[in-house]
Amino acid sequence: MRIGHGYDVHRLIKGRKLILGGVDVPHEKGLLGHSDADVLVHAIMDSILGALGKGDIGKAFPDTDQAYAGIDSLILLSRVYGVLEETGYKIGNIDATVIAQKPKLAPYIPDMRRKIADVLRTERENINIKATTEEKLGLTGREEGISAHSVVLLVTKKDERK
């Protein structure tokens, strides 16, 4: 087995959609970034790449490459899944936390879990997503940004011929 941790943070600004876990979350602000700035998916990708010893999303999908400008992060996650598929590992489980003062995310978490599980070709039970605030402290508490952490456990694939 292999374990990886991922972290991402993006600034909130007016004039952008808020995309978290591949879900369009209604809010007056969205996240600023080269892609769709989906901090949750970015943290998950970093945790998977880290567990595999493959660097991070900045190395895999540099923000200097215009091919990734505005791209849906679920597309990037599918590419990370392609890297994972080439190894002898599969998703054991993912535990992720989104840190945001607003909006409340609980109603959107089931859809986030479904979308991420579908891209990673794993059971929804293997994807856990939580949301918390920072009690109005720090950049997320002041509603300046949103951050996310992710931990992944990769396990070896079982011989499917048995």
From TrEMBL:
Family membership noted in the UniProt record: Belongs to the IspF family.
Q: What species does this protein belong to?
A: Alkalibacter saccharofermentans DSM 14828
SUPFAM superfamilies recorded: IpsF-like
Q: What is this protein called?
A: 2-C-methyl-D-erythritol 2,4-cyclodiphosphate synthase
Q: Which reaction does it catalyse?
A: 4-CDP-2-C-methyl-D-erythritol 2-phosphate = 2-C-methyl-D-erythritol 2,4-cyclic diphosphate + CMP
Give the Gene Ontology MF terms in alphabetical order: 2-C-methyl-D-erythritol 2,4-cyclodiphosphate synthase activity; metal ion binding
Which pathway does this polypeptide act in? Isoprenoid biosynthesis; isopentenyl diphosphate biosynthesis via DXP pathway; isopentenyl diphosphate from 1-deoxy-D-xylulose 5-phosphate: step 4/6
| Residues where a divalent metal cation binds | D8, H10, H42
Its job: Involved in the biosynthesis of isopentenyl diphosphate (IPP) and dimethylallyl diphosphate (DMAPP), two major building blocks of isoprenoid compounds. Catalyzes the conversion of 4-diphosphocytidyl-2-C-methyl-D-erythritol 2-phosphate (CDP-ME2P) to 2-C-methyl-D-erythritol 2,4-cyclodiphosphate (ME-CPP) with a corresponding release of cytidine 5-monophosphate (CMP).
- Asked if the keyword Lyase belongs to this entry, the reply reads yes
Against CDD domains, the record matches this protein to: MECDP_synthase (cd00554)
Which residues make up the annotated site Transition state stabilizer?
H34, T133
Q: What is the lineage of its organism?
A: Bacteria, Bacillati, Bacillota, Clostridia, Eubacteriales
Q: Which cofactor does it need?
A: a divalent metal cation
Q: Which domain of life is it from?
A: Bacteria
